[in-house]
Specification:
This protein is α/β, with parallel strands linked by helices. The protein has helices at residues 2-24, 26-41, 121-136, 169-175, 187-198, 203-216, and strands at 48-56, 62-71, 74-81, 95-98, 105-109, 115-119, 143-149, 153-155, 163-165, 250-254, 261-265, 274-276. α1 (2-24) packs across α2 (26-41). It starts with a helix and ends in a 5-residue tail after the last strand. 28% of the residues are buried.
């Protein structure tokens, strides 16, 4: 009898804990589930997978990206959505998703007439891509948006090809590998540059981002990708200098007084270091 109880504790307790976690935070569970799928199906020698990346934006705020996959096909920026009956904190269930690329908001429709409106994830991901492009100094055509919904969601309006279910994401990325936008040796360089930018954020700014979220939420062929780095580089608009005061990467900004450009520290307002922007020839 004792052995049976021990076995029950070993197998049942983890299942109950997992169910409790899904009920408490279905969004975090969805992000973890997609991460597991990506790691299992994408060869780590050809794909670099980054999860839960937080970056500074040009206006001094922060933005959080669920997943980034860097490969020969480009830099895939993934926004995950996990919708079910989690609006009432009940057991996750199916829901219908209504929306189009031009809508400001999309709608998740639940059983018994319950509805929930949320920000258009395509537009949301466009902001993520803009931030990445500005930080790395890489043209936006190298980035590809992916909006991934949990399998419980059912699309009731026609969706563009880059909106899909979790299970379709690895295959979608693999199918674009032939686009050959990023050289194999540049894949780890781009991934490390992203992580270098994330490292410029303090714990206080990350905590402030999470608190703000709580308050606000009760392809074309191109030439080989230029090097991405958080260190100073020479020549071109993609050059990213470091702050002379704290050593953090800098962001190209515009003066309100005369419209001129200057480099401002990405750690602003904690650090107010600036550099003059060299005029292009």
């Amino acid at each position: 009898m004792t052995t049976l109880l021990v076995l029950l504790c070993l197998f049942v307790a983890p299942v109950l804990a997992l169910c409790a976690f899904i009920k408490w935070n279905p969004g975090a569970f969805g992000e973890w589930l997609l991460h597991v799928m990506l790691v299992a199906k994408l060869d780590k020698s050809r794909f670099r997978i980054l999860r839960n990346v937080m970056l500074p934006t040009e206006n001094g705020a922060t933005t959080q990206i669920d997943h980034i996959v860097v490969c020969a096909g480009g830099v895939f920026v993934i926004e995950t959505k996990t919708y079910g009956n989690n609006d009432t904190r009940k057991r996750p269930g199916s829901c219908w998703i209504f929306g189009s690329p031009g809508d400001r908001e999309w709608t998740a429709s639940y059983p018994r007439g319950r509805k929930f409106r949320f920000q258009n994830p395509i537009r949301q991901n466009f902001k993520h891509i803009a931030t990445l492009s500005d930080c790395l100094g890489i043209p936006r055509e190298y980035f590809k948006s992916v909006v991934a919904f949990a399998g419980m969601a059912k699309f009731k309006t026609e969706m563009p090809p880059d909106v899909m279910h979790f299970a379709d994401v690895p295959g979608y990325i693999q199918a674009h590998e032939k686009d050959d936008l990023v050289k194999l040796e540049q894949i780890p360089e781009v991934a490390e540059a992203i992580l270098s930018w994330q490292a410029t954020l303090t714990r206080e700014r990350k905590a402030a981002h999470v608190e703000n979220l709580r308050k606000s939420h009760p392809p074309r062929q191109a030439s080989p990708i230029p090097p991405a780095s958080a260190e100073p580089t020479q020549g071109g608009d993609a050059a990213v200098p470091v702050c002379p005061k704290c050593g953090a990467p800098m962001v190209l900004r515009t003066r309100k007084s005369d419209g001129g450009s200057f480099w401002g520290c990405s750690a602003y307002p904690r650090c107010r270091g600036i550099r003059d922007a060299q005029p292009t020839a």
